[in-house]
UniProtKB/TrEMBL annotation:
Family annotation (InterPro entries): Aur-like, Kinase-like_dom_sf, Prot_kinase_dom, Protein_kinase_ATP_BS
Domain Protein kinase: 28-139
Nucleotide-binding listed as a keyword: yes
Keyword annotations: ATP-binding, Kinase, Nucleotide-binding, Serine/threonine-protein kinase, Transferase
Comp. bias intervals (Polar residues): 9-18
Keyword check for Ribonucleoprotein: no
Binding locations of ATP: 38, 57, 61, 106-108
Protein name: Non-receptor serine/threonine protein kinase
PANTHER family for this protein: SERINE/THREONINE-PROTEIN KINASE IAL-RELATED
Region (Disordered): 1-20
GO molecular function per UniProt: ATP binding; protein serine/threonine kinase activity
Natural source organism: Lithospermum erythrorhizon (Purple gromwell)
Coiled-coil segments on the chain, per record: none
A Pfam short name: Pkinase
Length: 139
């Protein structure tokens, strides 16, 4: 049985993505860490109500302000909400608290293409073509 994405997805316009339903961290069961970056961390998570598995990206507002990255985050959200490609993770929604912004992302069970590139240094021509055509499950 295929599960549906969380009902609390965000409705996005090209100028201002805004959440439809008020969500909070208590709507999710947080699992293992999947990665970390300059602005926060990504965790495996499950929405309590639907049991849907997602990646929950936690971004610290302090870091966004320090590096003045608000515009870049907004743009990332717009792109991930509107793009429909098998190798681009879909942004289902978002919410925030006083210190953090939480992005509810499609979970890439095969991992990131970036990690594959780090491991092998490059992709074969055949593998690159497969990934570009959207059949490669790279992220």
């Amino acid at each position: 049985m295929k599960m549906r994405p969380p009902k609390a997805s965000s409705k996005s316009t090209t100028t201002n993505p805004t959440p439809i339903k008020k969500l909070s961290l208590s709507d999710f069961e947080i699992g293992k860490p999947l990665g970390k970056g300059k602005f926060g961390r990504v965790y495996l998570a499950r929405q309590v109500q639907s049991k849907y598995i997602v990646a929950l990206k936690v971004i610290f507002k302090e870091q966004l302000e320090r590096y003045r990255m608000h515009h870049q985050l907004r743009r990332e959200m717009e792109i991930q909400t509107s793009l429909n490609h098998p190798n681009v993770l879909h942004l289902y929604g978002w919410f925030h608290d006083d210190e953090r912004i939480f992005l509810i992302l499609e979970y890439a069970h095969r991992g990131e293409l970036y990690k594959e590139l780090q491991k092998y240094g490059h992709l074969s021509e055949k593998r690159a073509a497969t990934v570009c055509n959207g059949r490669g499950g790279a992220g």
